Amino acid sequence: MKLLVTGGAGFIGSNFIRHVLAARKDYALVNYDKLTYAGNLANLAEVAEDPNYTFIRGDICDAARVEAAMRGCDAVVHFAAESHGHAWMRCGGALRCGIACGPQYL
Ligand SMILES: NC(=O)c1ccc[n+]([C@@H]2O[C@H](COP(=O)([O-])OP(=O)(O)OC[C@H]3O[C@@H](n4cnc5c(N)ncnc54)[C@H](O)[C@@H]3O)[C@@H](O)[C@H]2O)c1
Questions:
Q1: Which among 14, 17, 36 is the best mutation to test ligand 1's pocket, defined by most ligand atoms within 8 Å of the CB?
Q2: In order of start, what are the domains of the chain with their CATH numbers?
Q3: Which of 32, 38, 58, 78 is 20 to 30 Å from the Cα of 70, by its Cα?
Q4: Taking the complete model, does pTM exceed 0.85, yes or no?
């Protein structure tokens, strides 16, 4: 089973990735994350060299890049979001796209 995990460098996503890689040696995970202020690859330092783990820096609003990253994956686990507080309401298209458009591409 191969999973595309969006937002895997965030709080929940990184815990999910570490848990699955430890529990399931038959799973491969692709972490697709834009690395916003909330994304931190240090959360994944212990699995960075795991052969079943791949990191791709990208935005879920970039349909072509999402499609390329998704190639060969069986399922998507979607954690990427800019949903903290009210920041997404104050900002322009980019953040709203992360909430509204990105999931459509996925
Ligand atoms: N943390 C909680 O207690 C909690 C509770 C309920 C629901 N949730 C939801 O679960 C999801 C994940 O929560 P979290 O706490 O891990 O969030 P987080 O902010 O810690 O991580 C979000 C990750 O998504 C990435 N990201 C943001 N926008 C992106 C984009 N456009 N393209 C690609 N990557 C992008 C960030 O770089 C970051 O790594 C969110 O939708 C959140 O609303 C969280």
A1: 36
A2: 2-105 (3.40.50.720)
A3: 38
A4: yes
